[in-house]
Amino acid sequence: MQSSNHLPPTEAERLQRTTVLPGWDAQKVASTHVAVVGSGGLGSPLLMGLVASGIGRITLYEHDTIELHNLNRQILYGRGDVDKPKAQTAKEKLQTLGNTAIDLAGSFGEDTEPQADIVVDASDNFRTRYMIADASPELPCVWGSVLQYGGQVAVFPPGSSLRDLYPEPPSNPPSNAIGVLGPVAHVIGSMMAVETLKLAQGLGQPAQLTVYDALSATTRQFQLR
């Protein structure tokens, strides 16, 4: 068990059930800076998991506003948040969960170069996903996607990216055309949070391509070359 004596007393008490985990180093987590792209269906549980676990700093790339049809899966928000900006609303809600410093960075663009230890792709469109893949090849990237009743998670180490898995964008229709079961997004977003925290700690083995199928209650693992 790693000491949490350097954490503020209330934070040490809040994180007590985490800091007693074998191999857990609260200081490593508290000193980690994560760039997160997206605070929607994947980003909501992801961000909540990171902040609740004591991650030190998050730079959030998000420019959308909250719409009513988001609420079946974007659990950071409620009915009273409709028409509000996602980024600012997410920051306000996340600050009630922990001491994480949260910076708002607007849209992720073609010239964006994240300054962080880890990049997390929780975006919802292929254009942004491939911009992320091309922008930060020197950083580890946690990636996830969800559609209908299933999803995928992978960790790309420095020097690799989404293009190693899908060299060109798939031709799938957008999720708003064929739907997403909200809790499936929560499963995948939580898996992404776990992988991010593992990277921050250097714990365990990073996920290869993990494919989750809710209807058959199965996960399949594929080796990334």
UniProtKB/TrEMBL annotation:
InterPro entries: ThiF/MoeB/HesA, ThiF_NAD_FAD-bd, Ubiquitin-activating_enz. Keywords: Nucleotidyltransferase, Transferase. The keyword Iron does not apply. GO terms for cellular component: cytosol. GO terms for molecular function: nucleotidyltransferase activity; sulfotransferase activity; thiosulfate-cyanide sulfurtransferase activity; ubiquitin-like modifier activating enzyme activity. Residues 26-223 form the THIF-type NAD/FAD binding fold domain. This is Putative adenylyltransferase/sulfurtransferase MoeZ. It comes from Corynebacterium gerontici.
